[in-house]
Amino acid sequence: MTTYIHQTPPKNILIEAQKQHKSANALSNHFGVSRKVINRWLKEHNIEKNSYFLPKNKNLKKLLQTASFLDALELGYSKKDIQSYFWSRHISPPKAILLSKKETARRCNLLEKHYSQGIQKALLLDPSLEKSILHWTQDHTLQSDKITERIYRLIHGFKSDEVKTCIVESLPLKFYTLKKGYGNSDKQVCYLVNDLPEKISKSSQQLFDAINNKLPKELQNKSKYATKGREYRVCILKNDPFIHPLRNKKNYYLDFKLDNINIEFDGSKWHNKEKDKVRDEYLKSRGYSILRVDYSEFRKTPNQTIQKCLDFIHENINDSHSKP
Fold first, then answer.
1. C-alpha span between 177 and 52 (Å, rounded)
2. N or C: which end of the chain has fewer CB within 10 A?
3. pTM to 2 decimals?
4. CA distances in angstroms from 194 to 22, 81, 201, 231, listed in the order given
5. Could you tell me the residue range of the domain that residue 82 belongs to?
6. C-beta of residue 207 within 8 angstroms of C-beta of residue 309
7. CA proximity to 233, closest of 315, 170, 281, 314
8. Are 305 and 298 in contact (CB under 8 A)?
9. Tens of pLDDT along 285-294?
10. DSSP 3-state assignment of 183?
11. Phi and psi dihedrals of 291, rounded to 5?
């Protein structure tokens, strides 16, 4: 092999070497020079430099002429190869056309799969997808101006009026990211807010089951506790006027909740009387009526305790005109 260091090799030799060697390093090693020198030689012979840096698989060009770059990603091509095809050769993406809603949703699913960020930049490679996303969500009432919110709706099959208020606080839901979706705070999302606390008393559930079974059916459907629809959680509102050093920072779980009624089951272990007092004051400020039942009281006189709770509910249920 002739070593070319101080002289430029003939054009036909450069072209032949390009066909044989599939990487820049391999071509550099073949001639025993740096990549900078390789680029100078290509320039001297008017050989298009970008032709060397095209993706290894020649079928990519044909694929991108008929399919989305997202389909190429799904087949195993790298983002780098796809971007080099468009940008290094200054090739414009296909002309934007309106896709069907089904095809738009399919591509949105691929976009979510392959991109955790940089979605807006990725859409530059598929103008048809961006146009279709805007078209199929044009009648939606959006909580943000993010394209990711529109994509989220198409992925999850949302209708224009389908997003509701938070299942905990009846507050308008905000959109955050494709991963989080819609939520009522920066750190918690609506689909996760009702996670069960780790410690649940079996005796408390026996009491609440007994109470619930004796209620009218219309009230049974409204009650919530750990083993029936999970414990209801009251989120602490931002800038809440009720301020106390012992007040929780984020939320309160209600052992038993029925409209504005809260029945708490107090065991000997997990309760601090001072904190409980502050908690009750806070919930009363939010419109709740609260009854506390002691564990020992329920174990000694279960029937009387159940009746006591039912009487409390009937006395206060008429005060509940709306959900707190």
1. 39
2. N
3. 0.45
4. 55, 44, 17, 7
5. 59-88
6. yes
7. 170
8. yes
9. 888 999 999 8
10. strand
11. -125, 130
Kindly give, in sequence order, each residue whose CB lies less than 8 Å from that of residue 216, ignoring residues fewer than 6 positions away: none
Same domain? 71 vs 141: no
| In the predicted structure, residue 199 carries a pLDDT above the cut 80 | no
Considering the domain architecture, whether residues 83 and 114 belong to the same structural domain is answered as no
The span from the CA of 302 to the CA of 28, in Å, is 87
Question: Tokens 């002289």 sit at which residue?
Answer: 7
Q: Which of 187, 199, 189, 269 is nearest to 231 (CA)?
A: 199
User: Of 302, 301, 306, which Cα lies nearest the Cα of 291?
Assistant: 306
Tokens 């409980």 belong to 276
Q: Which amino acid is at 40?
A: R
Amino acid at 215: L
Same domain, 212 and 268: yes
pLDDT bucket at 132, cuts 50 / 70 / 90: very high
CA distance linking residue 272 with residue 277, whole number of Å = 9
**Residues 295-307: pLDDT tens digits?**
888 989 999 999 9
214 and 313 in one domain?
yes
Residue 296 in 3-state DSSP? helix
Distance of CA 108 to the CA centre of its chain: 14
